[in-house]
Design brief:
4-stranded antiparallel beta sheet; alpha+beta; elongated; 2 helices; 3-stranded antiparallel beta sheet; 9 strands; 173 residues; PH-domain like
């Protein structure tokens, strides 16, 4: 579902043209009033340098790598485009708060992905579980519960004492 998690706000641009501004964990999208599914423009969080509001104006500074014309006379950042939208003061402040919150969510998600490391394949997970499953079976035998377990039709072990121990079906193969 492409619109899941997108918060829409009705705004106008400098020319007074109405738009939907959609804010999500992906970034800020500008949508036509008739089409909330596909943004006309999408500014990803990694492209945005700054966002701010004042009175009835919400603005984002977008880093545009195509506008990086650096000369000897250039000071500060070049390649920044500023996009502005207008609405009531209370709505503009609400948009800004939501944008800050969604940007923080993006940063937290990015940081947690980095901590997890690379994604594992199903085969790697299955092999790891198979190795640990065999160790569990050995521990069950050591404790003396081996005789209290019966094999279910799916190959998992079920305790006759009512406690279900789920071992992977491929530990039996």
């Amino acid at each position: 579902m492409p619109t899941y998690g997108v918060h829409y706000y009705e705004v106008k641009d400098k020319q007074g043209i109405p738009w939907w501004l959609g804010i999500s964990y992906k970034g800020i999208g500008q949508y036509d009033l008739q089409d909330k599914l596909k943004p006309r423009k999408l500014y990803q969080w990694k492209q945005l340098e700054n966002l701010y509001f004042r009175e009835k104006k919400f603005a984002v500074e977008v880093n545009d790598p195509h506008r990086r014309a650096v000369t000897k006379r250039t000071f500060g950042q070049t390649g920044l485009l500023i996009h502005t939208w207008y609405a009531s003061h209370s709505l503009i402040k609400t948009i800004w708060v939501m944008a800050i919150s969604q940007h923080q969510f993006y940063l937290d998600r990015k940081q947690s992905k980095a901590k997890l490391g690379p994604a594992r394949t199903l085969e790697e997970i299955a092999m790891e579980l198979t190795e640990h499953g065999g160790a569990k079976m050995n521990r069950l035998g050591d404790v003396g519960l081996k005789n209290n377990c019966i094999t279910a039709s799916n190959g998992s072990l079920v305790s006759t004492g009512g406690l279900i121990t789920q071992l992977l079906w491929f530990t039996k193969r």
